[in-house]
Specification:
The complex is a heterodimer. Chain A is an alpha+beta fold. Chain A has eight helices and twelve strands. Among the domains of chain A are: 34 residues, no CATH class; 173 residues, Thrombin, subunit H (Beta Barrel). The relative contact order of chain B is 0.15. Classes of the chains: A alpha+beta, B mainly alpha. At the A-B interface, helix 1, helix 2 and helix 3 of A face helix 1, helix 3, helix 4 and helix 5 of B.
């Protein structure tokens, strides 16, 4: 800043006093005098400045609202991601429910505990142990097929090896029984990490891609009929008198969250009909949808049955045609008849399920067993 | 003051006024820089104290026109600060960046003190908070922005050889 020493003169003092007096007068002006002065200033000198200030503040608000909008979008995206996870879990549990309905007895549901460490990609920790009846070599299954086998059992937890484990072997066959072999892990690089191979298939047996491979039941550890995977193709090996096929596993180990452990009695009894019955999840889903429809129909029929025909207003009577009324009543009558039959069936099933020998084993780690429930029911 | 120098000072003054109404709302800070005080001080050190007081009065009235509750308070503070700055400019004879920053800091804080004491809008506790916390912070920011503005406007404000 340039400087120049100047003392203030009398004129400067007078100007200062005048300015200070003007300011004090302006400060003390009544509203009726102050407002016109301020309005004049705003409408003349300040107009362009206020316009610039308005634009700047609008820009500032737009910037701030952009941040808020981004936050809202992020929250929405996060919520939708959570929704997908919930839907996937719902689907998974529905599948497991369907499998439980098919198995009916001799199994224990278990949660796969996450948080595995490095080098533990081929083993999982299960939330159940010997207190629930789990024993070593119990098969671990999922709605899609075989997951693995229990290796170590503690009172409240157990460790299972997955089908991708290098030590895992299972005697297998084609679903139609045309070929037998031993299924083991493929031990490939990352893209083929979880693939399996079916070794020792006789040279005369040819399997087409897409053929379902199931456990053969030989060796008594795994019961017959648990899906293991689908044939992807044949692998060329040095063996001359046997073929080796590459399989896509029925259960991807990385996606396992909830499983069922088959108890030895259930494994001995056989599960061949369980996976042969088709997708058990479909039956569970159909059951849920049918139950919802039934409830809706029952409510509708009840509302029609309880409606007083005399209480219908004239306008309603004019609007509603007699033919529509009769059709509605006919539908309601049919629904009521169907409902009676469904109730009779449900009572019969409930009576059957009340038999302890038909109940699945309850999870003793999470909730105490009622006294009338047998820990290990006998097979029917 | 020569006409050319007067024109350059006027240009810097207008630029700083425009910055006050554009940059300050854009920042949206509570302790915001006061470009009006910077503009007043830039002009004050180049004119006589009486003229600086008049300029301060005009700038203060313009700013007060948007705040009717304190109409006149800003004008009083501005004319006192402008007069004092013009009178004391002999102290700041060197073109030293620290002294200029101190000059801006003291000018803005003095303005806030006069303004807050005149407008009577705060209670005692809140007034103390404003005077001892927010006003020094605002003066600090004003000094920083003032130095930046003076550096940017140096080509305009630099005395031209005769």
């Amino acid at each position: 800043m340039p400087t120049a020493a100047r003392a203030f003169s009398r004129r400067d003092s007078v100007l200062l006093v005048a300015c200070v007096l003007t300011s004090i007068i302006a400060r003390g002006l009544p509203d009726r005098l102050r407002d016109p002065v301020a309005a004049t200033l705003r409408q003349t000198v300040l107009t362009p400045l206020v316009a610039m200030q308005r634009d700047a503040e609008l820009t500032h608000r737009a910037w701030q609202s952009r941040e808020a909008r981004t936050l809202a979008q992020d929250s929405l995206a996060l919520r939708s991601m959570t929704l997908d996870a919930v839907q996937a879990e719902n689907e998974r549990l529905r599948l497991l429910l369907g499998l439980g309905q098919e198995l009916r007895w001799g199994f224990v549901p278990a949660e796969v505990l996450t948080g595995r460490g490095v080098g533990e990609d081929y083993t999982v920790t299960l939330s159940i142990g010997s207190r629930s009846g789990v024993k070593p070599f119990s098969p671990v299954v999922a709605p899609e097929g075989l997951v693995g086998m229990v290796k170590t059992v503690d009172p409240s937890m157990s460790i299972a090896i997955l089908s991708a484990h290098p030590d895992f072997r299972v005697s297998a066959m084609a679903a139609d029984g045309s070929a037998f072999g031993i299924v083991a892990t493929h031990l490939g690089a990352e893209p083929e990490r979880y693939l399996m191979e079916m070794r020792g298939v006789p040279i005369r047996s040819t399997l087409k891609p897409g053929t379902l491979i199931v456990s053969s039941g030989l060796g008594s550890t795994f019961p017959r009929g648990i899906p293991l995977g689908m044939v992807l193709g044949e692998i060329r090996t040095s063996e001359l008198w046997a073929r080796t096929y590459l399989l896509r596993p029925a259960v991807m180990p990385s996606e396992v969250t909830s499983v069922m452990v088959l108890l030895p009695e259930r494994a001995h009894a056989g599960v061949e009909s369980v996976w042969r019955a088709g997708r058990s999840s479909d039956s569970a889903a159909r059951g849920v949808i049918a139950a919802a429809d039934s409830i809706a129909r029952v409510n509708r029929a009840d509302s029609l049955a309880t409606a007083d025909p005399q209480g219908v207003s004239r306008s309603d009577a004019r609007v509603r045609a007699p033919a529509a009324d009769s059709a509605e009543v006919a539908h309601a009558a049919a629904d009521s008849a169907r409902r009676r039959r469904a109730r009779a069936r449900a009572r019969a099933e409930s009576a059957a399920l009340a038999d302890p020998s038909l109940r699945p084993i309850q999870h003793s780690d999470s909730a105490p067993k009622p006294p009338d429930v047998q820990p290990v029911p006998t097979p029917p | 003051m020569k006409p050319a120098e007067l024109a350059r000072t006027l240009l810097a003054f207008v630029v700083l006024i425009v910055l006050h109404y554009t940059v300050r709302p854009l920042l949206g800070w509570r302790a915001a820089p006061d470009f009006l005080v910077i503009a007043l001080l830039v002009v004050s050190i180049r004119v006589r104290p009486g003229t600086a007081a008049v300029v301060g009065l005009c700038v203060g009235l313009i700013s007060d026109a948007l705040d009717l509750q304190a109409f006149g308070a800003g004008a009083l503070a501005m004319c006192v600060v402008g007069f004092a700055a013009s009178w004391l400019k002999a102290v700041f004879f060197a073109d030293d960046i620290i002294l200029n920053a101190l000059f801006l800091f003291a000018g803005k804080w003095a303005f806030d003190i006069i303004y807050l004491l005149t407008e009577h809008q705060y209670g005692f506790g809140e007034l103390l908070l404003q005077l001892l916390v927010w006003s020094p912070l605002s003066a600090l920011v004003t000094a920083a922005f003032g130095m930046l503005a003076l550096l940017l406007l140096r080509p305009i404000l630099k005395p031209q050889p005769a």
